[in-house]
Design goal:
This protein is mainly α and about 120 residues long. Helices cover about 80% and strands about 0% of the residues. The chain has one domain. It starts with a helix and ends with a helix.
């Protein structure tokens, strides 16, 4: 009975560690998102009329990855508000919301974010 409890605890520990490592492997740094993920071009491609579902989904994934990062500089609440607006706008885009282009345009203001967080 003692061995079963130890095995169960060990299995639970390994599951939690494995999940944490997998989540860390999926997250991208801000630099990877902006440069490697080519955030600006991805945003432009996803926002165009007639954009493919793949472009929209790729943009949404970049927005979610960006929101998962801590702000490198400036107020954390400002970072949270800006990245949450991006995530919401990108989800609207994926969902086919007719006003999604306007939402992305308002949320994806590069200068507004870079001025306070870069």
């Amino acid at each position: 009975m003692k061995n079963v409890k130890m095995f169960t605890l060990a299995a639970m520990f390994l599951a939690v560690v494995g999940f944490s490592l997998n989540a860390a492997a999926d997250s991208k740094s801000i630099k990877e998102i902006m440069k490697g993920g080519n955030f600006k071009k991805c945003c432009e491609a996803a926002s165009k009329k007639g954009a493919s579902d793949a472009d929209k989904k790729a943009f949404a994934e970049l927005c979610e990855s960006l929101a998962a990062n801590k702000c490198p500089k400036g107020d954390a609440e400002s970072w949270k508000a800006k990245t949450e607006a991006l995530v919401a706008a990108s989800k609207a885009l994926v969902a086919g919301d007719k006003d999604a282009g306007k939402k992305v345009g308002a949320a994806a203001n590069c200068k507004a974010c870079h001025d306070v967080h870069k």
